[in-house]
Amino acid sequence: MAPSPGPRDDWPRCRRSQIPSTPRLPHPGRLNDDDVHLAQALADSAALALMHWSTEPARADDVITRVQSVIASKATLEIAKGMIAQYADTTIAEAAQLLTAYARQRRLRLTDTVQALVTRDMNPAAVVEAKPRT
């Protein structure tokens, strides 16, 4: 009987030049503000998806629908933060605080608030006037 192959003996052989590498940052260890914001948005999307993940087995279509829904919600939030930041001439972080304060003071869901902003059912001035409590 022939000896069984070792753990890597059955792997396909390829030259190092054929192995895709990860993209390299222009300055390792440093990200500009836009890249940091994008990375945070992606991390937030992943965290939301994991928080709402069902332990029940799901069909592939269900998983895709959930992921698309989380991404759409996060995109709507980012658009609303951008709208508030532009309107109030402030940073994205301060706009997020204003949105959160507005929703909390009125006991509204943040998702409902940002949806109303993005669909133009709410004026950004209403959110800007709701200063966060300190």
TrEMBL record:
Alphabetized SMART domains for the sequence: ANTAR
Domain of life the protein comes from: Bacteria
Transmembrane portions of the chain: none
Domain ANTAR: 57-118
Region feature Disordered, mapped onto this chain: 1-32
Name of the protein in its database record: ANTAR domain-containing protein
Taxonomic path: Bacteria, Bacillati, Actinomycetota, Actinomycetes, Kitasatosporales
